[in-house]
Specification:
162 residues, alpha+beta, 29% helix
């Protein structure tokens, strides 16, 4: 299966909303608790500095990323991103292609650093991917993430120079 990462189109929004909501519903990675609907999804994705999708040869959207500033003003050169891959497509390196494209896009947009504020410590697949791609863990924030079942897990901030 060949995967292409490209800028999203409005016709992709229903799939993007579905995939994003799968991750929110899982309750183990994204801080958001509210599901996106057609209106909030359109606004959310349009409000990013960059948003791209991963699609297969048949044009099916399998995942996506959002990229935006992590802060403003004197810290505006630092960006942040989130990645979502469809439940049915996890484990086949779509996330890796999204992260690599996102790093290049962040640099192209003039950001100097990509920072992830809250990678859940138990999200070992994401952590291994980020570390393999050169991200550096900044430490651990004990109990920084409330899981869907209500217990708290540590979070690990990461950064990568662009």
């Amino acid at each position: 299966m060949s995967i292409t990462v490209r800028k999203y189109r409005s016709s992709d929004e229903p799939d993007m909303i579905r995939i994003w909501n799968e991750v929110v519903e899982d309750g183990i990675a994204f801080p958001q608790e509210e599901m996106l609907d057609e209106a909030t999804g359109r606004e959310f994705f349009a409000g990013q500095s960059c948003c791209k999708v991963a699609e297969d040869d048949a044009g099916a959207v399998l995942g996506l990323y959002i990229l935006h500033p992590n802060n403003v003003g004197r810290c505006g050169h630092i960006c942040n991103a989130s990645y979502a891959v469809s439940r049915d497509c996890r484990g086949v390196h779509i996330g890796e292609q999204l992260v690599k494209d996102c790093l290049a896009e962040g640099k192209r947009l003039g950001f100097r650093i990509m920072q992830f504020n809250a990678v859940v410590a138990s999200n070992i697949h994401a952590r291994h991917l980020y570390e393999r791609l050169g991200f550096v863990q900044l430490g651990t924030i004990p109990g920084g993430f409330r899981m869907k079942d209500g217990h708290y897990e540590d979070i690990c901030p990461y950064y990568h120079e662009l």
